[in-house]
Specification:
- The chain folds into two domains: 135 residues, no CATH class; 149 residues, 2-Layer Sandwich (60s Ribosomal Protein L30, Chain: A).
- It contains ten helices and ten strands.
- A hairpin with a 2-residue loop joins β2 and β3.
- α3 crosses α4 and α4 packs across α6.
- The longest helix has 26 residues.
- The protein is rod-shaped and about 125 Å long.
- About 14% of the residues have low confidence.
């Protein structure tokens, strides 16, 4: 193609010739072809028009040279071939019509009449060459594009396993009452301690309520606490000789005096709730210990939550 460009007078001459040739080749569809080329090749419209202008005389020259050699395109010419030239159709403008430039394509042999008769065929050949050129450009653009790689899937974040749901069991009481309670909850532990003659009463064995809930920073018991309170009241009723003490505790956040008062109020309200469920008040006592006797570190939210608790200790059985 570089040789052809040099032979045809360089790129400026090709542009000039091609600009004059395109209207006669594409007619009213010239703009549509330019727009299509611009979209297909990813070029702006001006660049697409320039590409068509350069390609038109180049392809036309190739076709004439092909016909001149009788279908055997090897770069040689027939000695009997007369010299032929093509005059670009005149263009109208200011001052009237101007003759188009003369473009000498060299010798055209006996195939020239066929070329003139097949001028409509040239348009399709030109379009085919343009399509092949576009494919070459498109392939080159794809080759230059970086190959997209599928990112490695991120390793799943480690999630702490959820605490297993408590297993509920049926615990029978001496008075015939049956409780549906957690297997390792306070109810099961309390019944086992009361019924075990080998476990004496002491001042260190406490059992923590695990389903009591209070309003935030308050001693008011929430309705969700009623089921466990009812179970403890049933146990106290089934073992009438048992006496118990309720202890209240807080975490270390806040004023010591406020924590002490909150722990006392929560212990007292828990005891009063049991009294309302039928446990004689003489068999129970309540005391608040504030932030004393923590069972976990107060440096974490989980630890502070464990320290905010209500415990029960058997003082007589």
């Amino acid at each position: 193609m570089a040789t052809a460009v040099s032979a045809l007078g360089g790129v400026p001459q090709l542009l000039k010739l091609g600009t004059a040739l395109l209207p006669s080749i594409f007619g009213t569809r010239q703009n549509a072809v330019t727009d299509w080329l611009s979209s297909a090749a990813g070029l702006n419209r001006n660049a697409a028009g320039s590409l068509l202008s350069i390609g038109a005389p180049f392809v036309l020259n190739w076709i004439l040279k092909y016909l001149r050699t009788g279908g055997n395109y090897n770069g040689s010419r027939s000695r009997q071939s007369p010299r032929r030239s093509v005059v670009v159709p005149p263009r109208s403008g200011a001052g009237g019509a101007h003759p188009g430039p003369r473009f000498d394509f060299g010798d055209v042999g006996r195939a020239a009449p066929a070329a003139r008769a097949g001028s409509s065929l040239w348009k399709w050949i030109l379009l085919l060459i343009a399509i092949l050129l576009l494919f070459w450009l498109w392939k080159g653009r794809r080759t230059e594009q970086p190959v997209a790689t599928t990112p490695e899937p991120a390793a799943p974040a480690e999630v702490a396993p959820a605490a297993p749901a408590p297993v509920f069991v049926i615990r029978g009481l001496p008075n015939g009452v049956k409780l549906n309670v957690p297997e390792n909850g306070i109810e099961s532990q309390l019944i086992a301690f009361i019924e075990d003659p080998n476990r004496p009463v002491d001042k260190t064995t406490w059992f923590s309520f695990d389903r009591l809930e209070f309003e935030t920073a308050s001693a008011v018991l929430m309705p969700s606490s009623q089921e466990q309170l009812k179970n403890i009241a049933d146990i106290m009723s089934a073992y009438p000789q048992v006496e118990a003490k309720i202890g209240g505790y807080t975490d270390s956040v806040g004023d010591d005096a406020d924590n002490m008062k909150l722990s006392q109020d929560r212990a007292t309200n828990t005891m009063n709730a049991l009294v309302q469920l039928g446990v004689p008040p003489a068999r129970m006592a309540a005391e608040g210990y504030g932030e004393q006797f923590p069972v976990a570190s107060n440096d974490t939210e989980e630890g502070r939550q464990r320290n905010r608790r209500i415990d029960l200790r058997v003082v007589k059985k």
